[in-house]
Amino acid sequence: xxxxxxxxIKKRKASGLSxxxxxxxxxxxxxxxxxxxxPKSLPTEEFTESEMQxxxxxxxxxxxxxxxxxxxxxxxxxxxxxxxxxxxxxxxNQSMKVDLENALPSFFQYLYKKLNNYSIxxxxxxxxxxxxxxxxxxxxxxxxxxxKNPLIDKLRSTFDLDL
Length: 163
Hints:
By secondary structure, the chain is mainly α. Helices cover 51% and strands 9% of the residues. Among the domains are: 49-126, GMP Synthetase, Chain A, domain 3, CATH 3.30.300; 134-163, no CATH class.
């Protein structure tokens, strides 16, 4: 019994230089402009300072889990406040400000969805005096403890402890 050959007919793709491809390109450009979202139509629900701070800390933990430890710790240490419906965060140095500014696009996407508010504004302040609140050396740590509890000096001298 003879078999009939099967012909595989494929649809031809449009050439880059054909009239058909130009028509498809114009249709694509037209469809792109139809999908533009009006920023005024996005939700702008009210949120409290505690909701914003919880979202802030949650984003920091998320970054920490992804391996972005510096960013995660920055979000954990510097909790912002809400002033006149604007998020205000005070950072101890300029390099932390740069790190935060680099993370803003993904952070805003997270915050917009979490708080259901697409008109959130963030103000970053740099206060060099704030860096003094972090104790790095053993002597700094001891002085900080002594500020909180002056009796720590008596404990150190009684037991003849070194720093």
